[in-house]
Amino acid sequence: MRDEAAMTGAAHVHFRVLGPLSVEGPGGALAIGGHKPRTLLAALLVARGEVVPAERLVSVLWGDGPPDGAMTALRAYVSRLRGVLGDAAPLRHRPPGYCLALHTATLDAADFEQRVRSARAAAATGDHARALADLDAALALWRGDALAEFADEEFAAPEAARLTELRTGATADRADELVALGRSAEAVPELEALVRANPSWERPAVTLMRARYATGRQADALAAFHELRARLDDELGVEPAAPAQDLYRRILVHDPALTATPRPGNLPRRASGFVGRERESAGVLAALREGPLVTLTGVGGAGKSRLAVEVAGRDRARFDDGAWLCELAALPEDSPVGDAVSAALGIRQRSGLSVEQTVLEYLRPRSLLLVVDNCEHVLAHAAALVGEVVQHCPGVVVLATSREPLGVDGEQVRPVPPLPLADATALFVQRARAATPDFRLDPAAADAVAAICARLDGLPLGIELAAARMRVMSPAEVAARLEDGPLLGGGRGPVPRHQSLAAAIEWSYRLLSGPEQRLFRGMSVFAGGADLRAVHGVADPGAAEDDVLDRLTRLVDRSMVVARSGVHSRYGLLETLRAYGRSRAADAGETAALTRRHVEYHVDYAERAGAGLQSPDERAWAEEALGVYDDLRAAFTRAAADAEWDLAVRLVAAVPELVHLRVGYEAYAWAEQLLPVVDPGHPSYAAAVGAAARGAWNRGDFPHAVATARLAGDRRPPPGTPRIAYPHDVLADVALYEGDVARALAHYVAESERARGDGDRIRLVWTLYYVAVCHAVGRHPEEGLAAARESLDVAEATANPTALSMARYALGLVLKKSDPDAALALFDEAEELAAAVRNFWWQGIAMMEGAATRAVHGDPVEAARALVAVLAHWDRVGDATQQWLNLRYVARLLQRVSATADAATLHRHLVAAGKPSPLGPPTAPGNGRRADPRAAEAAAVASARAALGRVLSGELATGRA
């Protein structure tokens, strides 16, 4: 067996500057030394990995009058720091100075900034709960003032000021998210403090007005405006800006929208204003109230998607469960749509159900507006699922977009006409000013713009492409070029209109340079967009990356490419432009090479992401990889279609941790598809078997899970394999679930020894976790304490959030009875760690055990609130096994608060479904028949929600102090 140093490799180091400078390794705080070494380290950290000249460091350490031998002393301090930090954060000499390599270490300031960016990206899509969680995690990193002991030093003051400003902005963001989530009362104290500290900053004052009004304090909300107005007048001699004045007027007239309950959903925030379409919007809104299905039809580029999102945003307040957008454009032609719809709704396939049945089960009791966008290339599958939703989900209304009707009973078809001249002109001016802010519509330009809009048949996409040319051409020049081009005018109706749009796209394409045209064609291979690295590697690998970025920027400027911000900027084509790009790539004979590069790039990416999800940077990898998922699907589909089995199986073996824990079960079908055709000797075969077996396990099909896992024989996946893709683990888990604790325990004890020998720390955390769980299930939790503590020690060395979450959960589980307070803290930490990396399964079990612990030992009202959240979580995740366990915890709480009738009702539901009840055996003999499992679960969950609601409302005495 290898020694510990060899097994763990370089220790991970955490640098903390959001407060007093500190450095932490696996064993705790590292002793950096006195003021000079600490100052040296701070200067290197401020540089964020860039080289700091030696002369600059001497000046930082000794000021303008350094002593003789200062360079020698600097080298001594550098040597001392190297000895403390080791290989985890190498301090390197790079002429003309030194740099601190941070790629294997973490810096709390960088983590803070990344979390704030993630929060703002989530807020932009309407995911306010996610944004709030990210902001809470970001602000929790602060332990005092930034670079506190160096804030007055010249080298640190600008960075300290920058970080402090970011902190203030994040605090304001947090208040915004609280208000957006309907938690205005919590936001008011924070906003009042922000306003006191920043009296001339309008944004927190405006949010304070909104929050006070939402809590019934109209007079105080108006007072906040008057106080802001007085401050701005005294200090700057200006009036409040439009947002403050508009809100003031809305408060005066009691605008109902100010107190409307926020609705969930995922509708995107518009990057630009919505122009015109008032008649169409009103017509679609009226149609949505008349029937369960409205389909917007029209040619590509007519603005169907934009209109659908606009109408959904206006109508979502009518639906208790909000409005949700499912985009189908990235799906391969004629493919099923169930996985895409479930992913958009954030739900996963339930045990014993197909993904389509899961969607129907989830939607059946809900009041929800579902926007299904770009149905035309998957028309049959989209129509089939939408038809089922219309028939079986009475509270759901579907708004679809397609180039042709779905053909479903009850469908109302609303053709999307071209924009009338006034609206078309307004759109042209808006997009022209985005390209050229000083664009003016004088009389001469107005005539040319009218000619452009008429020539383009009022189609928004064509108008936007033409407007983007205002940076280098005048309206008259564009009109003249269009007049001389091969546009088809004269006729009306869909065919001429579609031809005119195609000609407008052709014209825009011809105006690109040769390299820009090649890049545009190459980008058409991406299903869901790509970052710069992917664009370079797939679309134009022969060019320098800087040249690709320059061309990409020009394509964005010309509206040929759409740029989306997030963790990394991503670039994509609208579907109409993507179809055109594919046709031009085919004409150029480039399709085969592009497809091959796309597949190879994404197989490599999947393997890098799989490793990244087991690293300290799991959060960043998860955020990024979820955005690549459409292209991972496309890469697998292409590899399988071309019988590229090596590439297909490598991708399947790499993605289980991304897909299973964060998306759904789609990739397990990929694994099952490969098993009959892949060589069992392939290095990734065992992991593919494990992925397929785990999918059967999640579906609740244990016989199939066992049969699939046994296909691996004695083959084992290599170290670094995703945690859930080990076939022999599935066999052990089936044994554990069926009551053979000893067999499962023996497996995981042996596997933990194997992991030690392999030096696979992630695997060791997993196996030790299960050793602890086996002891807890076997009712001897104290015997699992050593394994749980070792799991935590190893997890700390990995700094991987999921590993840290698992280890905390394991330790909490074995301490739950003997030290409930410690267990509760561990469960809460485990939940936070898992949620931060979107690992919803580990988040759910930590939530559940925390709620269960509160149900026995904590405040009953807090326990009830937590159990309601867990019911909703498992309902969305679709794990019936965990939901039934959660229902047992609800029954215990109801018994504790003397809700005798509610507890007895839930007990009957458990017994009727053949599930154990904490309240004992049935009180009366049954008829020997069990209820339908899904119906029984739905009834039990409804009963539990109602009973917990009575606890929360105060109807039931809880004994709360």
From TrEMBL:
Alphabetized InterPro entries for the sequence: BTAD, HTH_77, OmpR/PhoB-type_DNA-bd, P-loop_NTPase, Sig_transdc_resp-reg_C-effctor, TPR-like_helical_dom_sf, WH-like_DNA-bd_sf
GO annotation terms (biological process): phosphorelay signal transduction system; regulation of DNA-templated transcription
Annotated DNA-binding residue span(s): 5-102
OmpR/PhoB-type domain residues: 5-102
Gene3D superfamilies per record: Tetratricopeptide repeat domain, Winged helix-like DNA-binding domain superfamily/Winged helix DNA-binding domain
A GO term, aspect molecular function: DNA binding
Signal peptide: none
PROSITE patterns: OMPR_PHOB (PS51755)
Keywords: DNA-binding
Matches recorded under Pfam families: BTAD, HTH_77, Trans_reg_C
Annotated region (Disordered), positions in chain: 913-936
Keyword DNA-binding in annotation: yes
PANTHER family noted in UniProt: HTH-TYPE TRANSCRIPTIONAL REGULATOR RV0890C-RELATED, REGULATOR-RELATED
Family to which the UniProt record says this protein belongs: Belongs to the AfsR/DnrI/RedD regulatory family.
Protein name: Predicted ATPase
Native organism taxonomy: Bacteria, Bacillati, Actinomycetota, Actinomycetes, Geodermatophilales
